[in-house]
Amino acid sequence: MQKILFILPYKGITQVLQSALSCFSGFEADLWPDYENPVSGAAFLSKSLEEYRLIVAQGDAYNDLKRTCNKPVVEMPVSDYDILAAAKLAHGYMGKSILMLPSDLSKRAENILNLAGLNVGTSSLGKEDDVCKTAEKLHSEGYSLIITTPEESRICNECGITNIMLTTSYQTLTQCLGTVQSMLESLNKAENKLTLLEHYVHITETIHVVFSKDGKPVETFNCAANSCLVQMAQNMIPTLLQEKEISKLKMVDKQPYLFKGILSEIDGQPFLFFEIKHSLENTKTHIPGIMIKNTSNLSKDFFNIFYDDLCNLPFRQKVKAYSNANDPVVIIGESGTGKSRLADYIYDNSEYRNNLLYVVDCKQLDKYGINYMFRNTTSPLYSTHVTLYFKELNLTNKKYIDELVDFLQQSACLRNNKVIFSITCKIAESLDNRLCEMLVSRLGSFPLYLVPLRERIKDIPNLATLYLNEMNKELGQNIVGFEPEAMSYLQGFDWYDNVKQFKRVLKQLFVLTQGLYVTTKDTISILHDETIGNKKAKYERDSEKMHTLQELTFEAVQKAMLANGMNQTKAAKQLGISRTTLWRILK
């Protein structure tokens, strides 16, 4: 079997490519994720390419390899169909959109769009042009959505610029594979297969280190042999030799890592195998409800998947200003509006983004965790230059809320750290909410209000287009929009769980869609199921409130009885009810 190497321009193409490959025989393909490890000339060529008969690449990777590599290189093309599909997807966006493409693609795209009658502009990108500056210039000219190639899309994402990535369709890949098969027919050498371990290292970010019994590194994967992580694992060798298997949590350069080691023999010779990966758990905080995050494991999709940049630029600017300030922030909004994702965004834009983010989930925090928070010197409350996010503080007992506010007022925690709170409630109710008032007035927190989706109907087409693009990239499909009536149903629905529910519904519709457009029929079906679920949830919430009212009533009667020496007449008089009613409640 002859082997070929595919340089993948983006993650979502993997599944489509694998599907197309299943229709071809006579060769075997390897996939190189250029979206994680960009090809850069000599650095890439240091990898042995002798086993490959042919390489398939796109964009700069194709041009670099064609110039420097002694192997045949085939271009993974962008077809006219691919350009039209991206432009059609952008057509559903309410703002101005433009194709920002390399010069060789730009002219062809302009001719195609003119022929198709699509009102989408084009901008030519030279080899020496700065992608970020060019995109920002287009943004200043009124273009709020950029359509560009995978390489430029990555740069736009890093710069926070809204974009749609120009993807390669199944049909285009099939044509490309036909070209590959034709070229391979003239080549006659077989190639060596990759080992299972090489394949595993290729698809995982986990670090693997193998030591001999005397403690010398035999092999390292995803890590340099002289790194501090390897040295940390080396220090654990005496323990591993004694216990045969270990699992340890260690802080390395202020980052938590999980070390798993096992002692095993190969042909009678002992070897020590270590698996090392990032951990969300700190050795000092085995506490339910407390999680540790950093910039590598954040949810970074608040803008634009939750709030469209086109309509909410002032809000985004306010969030960035609040993130850079030393003052605490309180995020207020209903369930599903993206409070935790906004907290991640604030952390990622604050001066402490290179240090840890402690997420305190007040719903999960038990009595032991609360005691740890306030009375243990290893608590994040006593840390410096970190970010603390108190998620759904309204779910904590009032006593502990008062204690937390007093602590923050009297300690240096607010001065030395970035503190974020979130409260789940309706914006109108927050005006009379004691907790919101206390955080704003006593602690000087800056409030950020997340408007429910039902009050942002005009945002729904843009949010749907952007999220659809994300799923196209992730799953390698080419859905270009919604039937007009389907979008009307989405805009008319009462999103009781807001954007969280909206994203779930869109993903269900994405899975159901067989053609280019999400259908009205599927939309009605899914929204009908959501309506049934909403009625059931509402009934359960109402039942819970009734139960809570009964408990409060009985508690009030108990207190009155105790206060009046168990005298029912006096207790009834104090409560303002008849003795018969009191007796009925007690019974």
UniProtKB/TrEMBL annotation:
Residues 557-585 form the HTH cro/C1-type domain. The keyword ATP-binding applies. The keyword Cell inner membrane does not apply. It comes from the Bacteria. Residues 315-511 form the Sigma-54 factor interaction domain. Coiled coil: none annotated. Keywords: ATP-binding, Nucleotide-binding, Transcription, Transcription regulation. This is PrpR N-terminal domain-containing protein. InterPro entries: AAA_lid_NorR, Cro/C1-type_HTH, Homeodomain-like_sf, HTH_Fis, P-loop_NTPase, Sig_transdc_resp-reg_PrpR_N, Sigma_54_int, Sigma_54_int_dom_ATP-bd_1. Pfam families: AAA_lid_14, HTH_8, PrpR_N, Sigma54_activ_2. It comes from Caproiciproducens faecalis.
